[in-house]
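Example 3.2
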Amino acid sequence: MQDKIHRRTEAVALCRQAAGQGRKVVFTNGCFDLLHAGHVRYLEAARAFGDLLVVGLNSDASVRRIKGEGRPFNPVEDRAEVLAGLLAVDAVVVFEEDTPAELIAELLPHVLVKGADWGEDEIVGAEVVKAHGGKVVRLPLLEGRSTSALIRAIQEGGRKSAIPQ
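Structure, written as tokens:
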């Protein structure tokens, strides 16, 4: 698993090598704090759009700025290891910024994937990917599966609200 976790420069080299071999690079990103079935299905669907799935992972400081104090629940090393353990994920790269804009511009993936909860005009990096001949894909989310729902369920002392019946 550790061989899937890359420094930024290594991830750039990996993407350039793959592209040079005619392989299609797919990129997505997120906090992936409490991994759930929605994440797994999303990552599997993203991987199906190419030959190499690179996941940009927000650093702990980045997650705190975006989600607030008390987050993330899991440190970046653990989140990266869990993602790297998934068959669909080929590479994980941590980024410190609040958005992956700079990372996307460096990696230049062929396909940028985000959840359908994001409007295409809101997807960071979409313009860069399209300008280089790539495409942006918005994937439907698994209904009722979200980190927010899990947090609510834990706070309420049960899992009823986390998983629809």
